[in-house]
User: Which sequence fits this backbone?
């Protein structure tokens, strides 16, 4: 059984790492001995969508992922250029390797590009790989989001759909996807969180930022911010609205802001530098202050360490809404919608919108509430195990010629 998996951009790594780990575990358990059983042959593709050390290599090191078997070096570009570049570079690799399964994760351009190639490819014997989509079925119902387009299209060319929450299963059913191809396995990103939580507690990031309190004193409370969506940072007025709302709160406690490279360039382009303090570790001047402290993007362990200790998280990311729910940390989502409704229904998340007043109110409300850690159904560290069990079963069905999919 040969499985190819694809990663390309930052959020892919946390979702795929535990699945790869599960395959390694399976192989270890079957290695050696006289009755050594067939192993899974795994081939890892990195598309190169993210190429900065802080957005890619750091995650491979932190998550102990194997080096990619091939790096496509596709790089940045417009949506069309980037997607096309990944497709053109991926096709020959897929044709050469002829895997039985292709695993893609999440909703980035690399995910859709590779799924589309696999859906149309034809190997020498006329087969194509079965496409398995990790984190399928999530819907914001906002078609202006590039990720929503990626999610819908990837789901509709996939053969095996792994859902993280019950709303995703319902969405897929409403879209006419065959029920026997959808598996509610839970959240592999939370598998990773559970596996690395202890290491993150010892990451030392608080000390490096001067946030761990002096001897005998409790660590001072701080907020954590991430912001990178084009709709929030590419438009000057929209970006300024958000900054002004957060700046109001930053008078009460420091906000730590590991900034994505695109956000940094917009800050320079719009002349917004004055709204931020270049905190320690941000190539700047001195300790964290009661302001928005911009720092370099962090690796997985350091970011998780910071998130676990923060008083409140403000973000436009998808995955962080889920991680804060599991950590019991209040989250304010700086977007108009979420494709992860379980984080609002059962977790610690509020979707605040992107207007100043809404953000200020949401932060105030979240600061007045107390939350317990909450694990939505099937978010228990076993999602990758379930995924591998499904793939092994589908492999047996495939060999017997009875796969339920549309192949
Ligand atoms: C991508 C995903 C988004 C995800 C985010 C996480 C899509 C459509 N979007 O957005 O869903 O939340 O990753 O970070 O796939 N850049 C660098 N270094 C890099 C990569 C990018 O400087 O290593 C800069 C480039 O200027 C590039 C810009 O960031 O043009 C955007 O990168 P891109 O991969 O197109 O999208 P993200 O905004 O990172």
Assistant:
């Amino acid at each position: 059984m040969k499985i190819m998996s694809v990663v390309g951009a930052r959020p892919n790594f946390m979702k795929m790492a535990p699945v790869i780990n599960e395959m390694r575990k399976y192989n270890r358990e079957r290695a050696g001995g006289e009755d050594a059983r067939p192993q899974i042959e795994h081939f890892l593709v990195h598309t190169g969508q993210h190429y900065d050390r802080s957005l890619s290599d750091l995650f491979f090191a932190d998550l102990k992922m194997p080096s990619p078997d091939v790096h496509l070096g596709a790089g940045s570009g417009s949506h069309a250029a980037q997607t096309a570049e990944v497709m053109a570079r991926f096709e020959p690799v897929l044709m050469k390797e002829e895997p039985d399964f292709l695993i893609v994760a999440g909703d980035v351009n690399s995910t859709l590009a590779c799924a589309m190639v696999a859906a149309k490819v034809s190997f020498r014997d006329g087969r194509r790989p079965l496409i398995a989509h990790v984190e399928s079925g999530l819907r914001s119902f906002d078609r202006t989001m590039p990720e929503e387009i990626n999610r819908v299209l990837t789901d509709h060319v996939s053969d095996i759909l792994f859902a993280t929450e019950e709303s995703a299963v319902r969405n897929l059913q409403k879209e006419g996807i065959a029920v026997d191809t959808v598996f509610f396995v839970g959240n592999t990103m939370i598998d990773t969180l559970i596996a690395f939580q202890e290491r993150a507690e010892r990451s030392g990031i608080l000390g490096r930022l001067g946030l761990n309190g002096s001897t005998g004193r409790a660590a001072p409370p701080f907020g954590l911010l991430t912001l990178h969506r084009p709709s929030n940072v590419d438009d000057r007025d929209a970006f300024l609205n958000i900054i002004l709302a957060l700046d109001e709160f930053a008078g009460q406690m420091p906000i730590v802001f590991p900034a994505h490279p695109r956000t940094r360039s917009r800050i320079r382009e719009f002349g917004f530098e004055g709204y931020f303090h270049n905190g320690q570790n941000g190539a700047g001047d001195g300790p964290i202050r009661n302001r928005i402290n911009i720092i370099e993007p962090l690796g997985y362990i350091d970011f998780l360490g910071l998130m676990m200790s923060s008083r409140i998280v403000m973000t436009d990311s998808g995955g962080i809404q889920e991680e804060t729910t599991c950590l019991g940390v209040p989250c304010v989502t700086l977007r108009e919608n979420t494709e992860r409704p379980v984080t609002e229904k059962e977790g610690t998340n509020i979707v605040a919108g992107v207007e100043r007043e809404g953000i200020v109110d949401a932060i105030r409300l979240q600061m007045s509430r107390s939350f317990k850690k909450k694990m939505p159904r099937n978010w228990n560290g076993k999602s990758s195990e379930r995924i591998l069990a499904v793939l092994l079963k589908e492999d047996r069905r495939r060999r017997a010629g009875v796969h339920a999919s549309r192949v």
Summary: The mean pLDDT is 94.
